[in-house]
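Record pair follows.
FIRST:
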Amino acid sequence: MLKQKALSLAVHVVLSGALLVGTTAAMAYESGDVIVRAGAATVEPNDDSSRLTLNGAGLTNSRAYVDSDTQLGLTLTYMLTNHLGLGLLAATPFKHDIKAKNLLVPGKIDAGSTKHLPPTLTLQYFPMDAESKFQPYAGVGINYTKFFEEDVAGELEGVVGASGKLKLDDSWGVVFELGMDYALTDRWVVNAAVWYLDIDTDAKFNFPGAEVKTKVEVDPLVYMVGIGYKF
């Protein structure tokens, strides 16, 4: 529901900005400018995984799932030229619950949880004239995802009959970005943006005498709507 609201707002802002491109300019994006933005950021995984294995043996029709989360998103753009910017995406830590299907018992069970930070660096292209109030942009870059505070869910520990530990490997991957700023004043902007992050990780659940492993493709879309300030 939050994703749908964010997308609807983003579309509304973009269309409104497109209608107003020809109006009197209120700001200019120029070399050396810094634009700082903050807003609600939602990570929506397009998750997939390999079959879960138990002590090396594959479990039939098994897989892992990762749910979504919303946190405070922070972005920064440093304008290298009037049309090229260096963008940084940061956020407060995202927390995701992990479920497993057909792991020792039929159906889905709560398997664990993790937090992660996704610092992301992109080279952004701004096609409009520097004086335009409406500033769409596209970017490509690299993401590093740090997983931490991994925990095994009590439901899975109950199925196994023992306490366990969970480890998720950190990830490097490519990033694609689309966004827009629309000037409210010569300093304040409204912003909407979406990123695709290539995030892959190996998940290992360790119990006394038992190890469960799987490869997980998280590959989320990240949606953000917020407000920004140009320095």
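SECOND:
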Amino acid sequence: MKKIFCIFASFILLLLGSLTVSAAGPINQDGYFKNIRLAGRVRVVDSFPDIRVQVVSSFPDLNVKSVSSFPDEIGEWQFVDYGEDFTIQFVDSFPDIRIQFVDSFPGVC
């Protein structure tokens, strides 16, 4: 009986651990999405982006501040036509990440 309880308890802990992992956001705490640092020069494209982005007004994955120069911090993006660090495509459904444009305090939510 004790062995069955231990197996059951281990199963429950494994299940709870997998739920915790799946509840995590797509952006890690260091500000990376699939090895792309979410700071820098960004080009908006219509097809084949590095990241599909949805703009939302609540519950974003990342707060983004548009800057004109030196986009060094996570969430600071400078929109450019060439020489980008990564590309994005704005979408209405099935995004990779959700962003909210802010005037201050950019970064991971």
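COMMENT: The chain is about 20% helix and 30% strand.
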